[in-house]
Amino acid sequence: MVLLSSFLLPSSCDRIETTSFSKGVHAKLKEKVSHLHFYFHDVVSGSNVTAVAVARPPNAQPPTSFGLVMVMDDLLTEGPEPTSRPVGRAQGLYAAAGLQEMGFLQAMNLVFVGGKYDGSVLTVLGRNAPLHAVREMPVVGGSGLFRFARGYAVARTHRLDMSTGNAIVEYDVYVMHY
């Protein structure tokens, strides 16, 4: 099958229309599946803050923090310790969107540094209920070595300091890409 202007045509179709706007592309790409494992360090208090509130609800909304919006540039590391080898940054935002239960709308780019994936990005967009033991969010795209990416990220809280709000979250990301 050949994809042409959002229509599927049989492979036997010889004619591919070309315009100044678009042209058919014949590409033989081999799809890969990658598993990435790393730790996400969300620091909301202390001396090296990596996530800040940019909007707060007019009235306190315990226990869900409904209306709170945070912007982050969180460190990603190979191991759970902040001094572990850096593998990237999680850049984006999370917004408390649940009234009955703490649940964030999380939109983030996982920007990888060093090694094979240096400069490559995965984009994650989905619901993150941080008090659940295991959360799953969709990978909706990517760039660099992750072009045409799709998949899912599984998050598990490794450590949460209830007095500061700082957290270390273990991520397993499974992604299909070319």
From TrEMBL:
Any one GO biological process: phenylpropanoid biosynthetic process
Protein species of origin: Musa acuminata subsp. malaccensis (Wild banana)
Name under which the protein is recorded: Dirigent protein
Transmembrane segments: none
Keywords: Apoplast, Secreted
Cellular component annotations (GO), alphabetically ordered: apoplast
UniProt entry tagged with the keyword Chloroplast: no
Quaternary assembly: Homodimer.
Function: Dirigent proteins impart stereoselectivity on the phenoxy radical-coupling reaction, yielding optically active lignans from two molecules of coniferyl alcohol in the biosynthesis of lignans, flavonolignans, and alkaloids and thus plays a central role in plant secondary metabolism.
Pfam families linked to this entry: Dirigent
Family: Belongs to the plant dirigent protein family.
Recorded superkingdom: Eukaryota
Compartmental location: Secreted, Extracellular space, Apoplast
InterPro entries per record: Allene_oxi_cyc_Dirigent (IPR044859), Dirigent (IPR004265)
Alphabetical list of Gene3D superfamilies matching this protein: Allene oxide cyclase-like (2.40.480.10)
